[in-house]
Amino acid sequence: MTIDQLYNIYRQYPSVQTDTRKLKTGDIFFALKGPNFNGNEFASAALDAGSAYAVVDDPNLAGTNTRIIVVDDVLTTLQQLAKHHRQQFNIPFIAITGSNGKTTTKELVHAVLTSGYRTYTTQGNLNNHIGIPLTILSVKADAEMAVIEMGANHLHEIASYCEYTLPTHGIITNCGKAHLEGFGSIEGVRKGKGELYDHLRANNGTAFVMWDYDYLHTMSKGIPAIIKYGTTDTADIQGVVKQSEPFLSLAMIKGAHIPFINSQLVGAYNLPNILAAIAVGTYFQLSAAKIKTAIEAYAPSNSRSQLIEKDGNKFILDAYNANPTSMRAAIENFAAIQANNKVLMLGGMAELGAESLQEHEGIINLIKQHPWKAVILVGGDFLQIDHPFIKMANSTEAAAWFKGQQFSDTYFLIKGSRSMQMERVLG
């Protein structure tokens, strides 16, 4: 079956699913394979559950049911179908990647654009080789904008996503010390993330660039259109931190007719994320009032820069992920908060490769520079280093310790890599 033929079926049944547990009647089931599962084995069950068709790559299933479509490779077919669907649109497709802040930036950009346009975006963090094509295929015919988040942990990954996303606009939030195990070095991170700029450069695209970061100046050279945002006078959209406790407020200086914005985000490190959304909204001619209202109404969730008040204590829950760059920013922001009793509960950082021990030691040295009521370091390479702080094997142990304490009027920072599941501390 050709992609054109499959697309005609998709147009009749425009809902795609790869997980039989989430199937709805009329979905097209794509039987993906992985190291520990084979979706082909669930094709019949998917059809029995109401799936309109099942796309498989097991030739033994050919002819067993007229609603089973056999292809050479299910994942490749899913991506090709997504590209074909993407090519039906002549609207902005905005791709967002970066080491830190890409999901928050995506959510803010979506919130702003939704105030004036029919906008579709990545749900949660479905930002990989499966999630991105599924996101593209969720874009309906009435779309006026699409915002696509792209995650990556090795070279050539962003380039492959661009082949079927075909972004017209792009944002690299930053390039930090994340996924060093896959990228090899900070230079590798920049090269990998820079594949988005390479696509925009080659396809007459537009980049929204955080102009405070000199390395993004270099990386973005040659892109036909660059909209600069940041805190410097040379930025087109210029804003600065007005207040960062408990929530971030910013004052706009240039480029957007908004005197100030009071966000529901914790931490000055979220300033670039908000400025990116302002730059996008301004570029697409949304009113200052709509931009301000959208950003101020956005409330973070899913353990991302959340401020939670519970049992007389305050918690900054930023436990969705962590790397040395984001961990340092969170600690420094927390150290600057005016509070008498402050407790750090930090989980280990994953995917740092050969530099992992050194990076964890760097975080410990930073912690030593500030006074704390208590410091609890959980799992990962924090366990391999001698330090004067409390060690816990995992977040379950940390949660049990926390419940046994009698904290009151205390401020907590809870952060760690996704694998550490530090949100468990709060139950």
From TrEMBL:
Pathway: Cell wall biogenesis; peptidoglycan biosynthesis. It is an enzyme of class 6 (ligase). GO terms for molecular function: ligase activity. Its main location: cytoplasm. Pfam families: Mur_ligase, Mur_ligase_C, Mur_ligase_M. Residues 15-85 form the Mur ligase N-terminal catalytic domain. Residues 304-381 form the Mur ligase C-terminal domain. Keywords: ATP-binding, Cell cycle, Cell division, Cell shape, Cell wall biogenesis/degradation, Cytoplasm, Ligase, Nucleotide-binding, Peptidoglycan synthesis. ATP binds at residues 98-104. InterPro entries: Mur-like_cat_sf, Mur_ligase_C, Mur_ligase_C_dom_sf, Mur_ligase_cen, Mur_ligase_N, MurCDEF_CellWall_CoF430Synth, MurE/MurF_N, UDP-N-AcMur_synth. Its EC number is 6.3.2.10. Coiled coil: none annotated. It is found in: Cytoplasm. It catalyses: D-alanyl-D-alanine + UDP-N-acetyl-alpha-D-muramoyl-L-alanyl-gamma-D-glutamyl-meso-2,6-diaminopimelate + ATP = UDP-N-acetyl-alpha-D-muramoyl-L-alanyl-gamma-D-glutamyl-meso-2,6-diaminopimeloyl-D-alanyl-D-alanine + ADP + phosphate + H(+). Residues 96-280 form the Mur ligase central domain. Belongs to the MurCDEF family. MurF subfamily. Involved in cell wall formation. Catalyzes the final step in the synthesis of UDP-N-acetylmuramoyl-pentapeptide, the precursor of murein. This is UDP-N-acetylmuramoyl-tripeptide--D-alanyl-D-alanine ligase. It comes from Niastella soli. The gene is murF.
